[in-house]
Amino acid sequence: MRTEGTFCVTGSAPTALDPEPDQFEVALPVGVMTFTKVYAGDITGRSTTIFVAAFDQATGVGTYVAMETFEGALGDAGGGFAFAHSATTHGTDRQNELWVVVPGSGVGALAGISGGGGWRSRRTARTGSGSTMTSPDLG
């Protein structure tokens, strides 16, 4: 059974690394941020994300990689797990998407969770944006 829910970002902040790594010149700014999200629908709960990107805000071109920890429920199965996700964009598309559960990270009724899921994003005039997460198949 796959579950689906919407999420909204409830907080975000640029994050410094200590010690700061060596910086090399590249054509896009590279940065680290943290996010918090709240989920609703068949997926309920909250998550925190460590987000690293090489991204140009003006053109929308770049790539991100992220590690996210989730606590909540997928349908009736409560617990938590970690997952990784990434994507590349040329400003108007999404390519090379990855969304995968970290093996062995599940706890509670989500112990043993594995596989992949995904994101679907949409922009609306009223809300500005909205995103949906699809969970891995829970069997």
Explain this structure to me?
With 139 residues, the chain is an all-beta fold. The chain has one domain (4-12, 28-134): Beta Barrel (AOC barrel-like). 0% of the residues lie in helices and 60% in strands. It contains no helices and nine strands. Strands 1, 2, 3, 4, 5, 6, 7, 8 and 9 form a nine-stranded antiparallel β-sheet that branches. It is globular, with a radius of gyration of 16 Å.
According to CATH, the fold-level topology is: AOC barrel-like
Largest sheet: 9 strands, antiparallel
Report Rg: 16 Å
| Cα end-to-end separation | 6 Å
CATH class: Mainly Beta
Sheet-strand content, in percent, reads over 45%
What's the pLDDT, averaged over the residues?
87
Taken from the alpha-carbon principal axes, the silhouette is globular
What would the keywords be for this entry?
single chain, 139 residues, mainly beta, AOC barrel-like, 9-stranded antiparallel sheet, 0% helix
Write the topology of this structure.
Blueprint: E1 4-14, E2 30-41, E3 43-56, E4 61-74, E5 77-90, E6 95-101, E7 107-108, E8 118-122, E9 130-134
Antiparallel strand pairs: 1-2, 1-9, 2-3, 3-4, 4-5, 5-6, 5-7, 8-9
Structure described in brief:
The protein has 139 residues and is mainly β. It has strands spanning 4-14, 30-41, 43-56, 61-74, 77-90, 95-101, 107-108, 118-122, 130-134.
